Amino acid sequence: MTGIRDIIFVTGNLNKLKEVQMILAKNESDDDINLINKELDLEEIQELDLKEIALAKCKQAVSMLGPGHAVFVEDTALTFDELNGLPGAFIKWFVKSLGLNKIVKLLDPFENKGATAITTIAYADENGEYHVFQGFTKGRIVESRGPTNFGWDSIFEPFESNGKTYAEMEKLEKNSISHRGRAFDEFKQFLFK
Ligand SMILES: O=P(O)(O)OP(=O)(O)OP(=O)(O)OC[C@H]1O[C@@H](n2cnc3c(O)ncnc32)[C@H](O)[C@@H]1O
Ligand SMILES: [Mg+2]
Questions:
Q1: What distance in angstroms lies between residue 3's CA and the mean position of ligand 1's atoms?
Q2: Can you tell me which residues bind Mg(2+) (predicted)?
Q3: Tell me, what's the ipTM?
Q4: Does the C-beta of 166 come closer than 6 Å to ligand 1?
Q5: Which residue of 12, 22, 101, 163 is surrounded by the most CB atoms within 10 Å?
Q6: Three-state SS at 44
Q7: Where are the domains of the chain?
């Protein structure tokens, strides 16, 4: 499919929105997305299955917006190697209730500080069909370094970043290796295939 398409992104997270706008700003072809942000209060089901969470979020968005729109949501998780998939999607509540320093301390008993950042995108097309895309970035949990304005950016050091935390990286650099950047690579491939 070619041309400009209106796609609604439902999120209340401005940091996320800014990254997604940057990621989608330039396409390889003439195709383009006109990204429309809607801030709807979506309930997040308590689940470990990331695809189920994103799909449930997207279905809620569709029921609030009505049929006929192309709409997507994304849900971002952080899993620790030693905690078998946790905190996963619950990372949001860990950041809110514990704060970054206590999250780092959770891993004190373990030598392995390995973690994986995962973005799951759930997209409902104009015909009401659902599609899911994911991106993964591996790294490790470190003492907080860099600005702390975006979630757990300052305690996650990707293996591909030459020792920088996400928070210490330029946005373009982060997007080029990030969980979000990779999930949107998949999404764009699907949209413009
Ligand atoms: O409205 P939505 O899109 O749901 O936005 P949210 O802030 O609720 O986001 P999530 O449900 O995906 O929760 C993910 C948590 O991880 C944080 N987060 C998301 N992407 C991140 C990134 O790239 N780097 C660091 N923290 C991130 C975010 O601030 C939340 O605390
Ligand atoms: Mg959320």
A1: 30
A2: 44, 75
A3: 0.98
A4: yes
A5: 22
A6: coil
A7: 4-191
Give me ligand 2 centre to Cα 183, in Å.
Answer: 17
Compute the distance between CA of residue 177 and CA of residue 163 in angstroms, rounded to an integer: 13
State the pLDDT at residue 4: 79
pLDDT in tens, 115-139: 999 999 999 999 999 999 999 999 9
Contact 115, 80 (CB under 8 A): yes
What per-residue confidence (pLDDT) applies to 31? 67
Residue with the nearest Cα to atom 28 of ligand 1?
151
Q: Which amino acid is at 72?
A: F
Architecture of the domain defined by 4-191: Alpha-Beta Complex (3.90)
Q: Would you say the CB of residue 150 lies under 6 angstroms from ligand 1?
A: yes
**Separation CA 97–CA 87 (nearest Å):** 13
Instruction: Flag residues of the chain having pLDDT under 70.
Output: 1-2, 26-31
Q: What is the pLDDT of residue 68?
A: 93
| Neighbour tally for 143: CB within 10 Å | 12
pTM over 0.90: yes
85 sits in the region (left: phi over 0; alpha: psi -120 to 50; else beta) called left
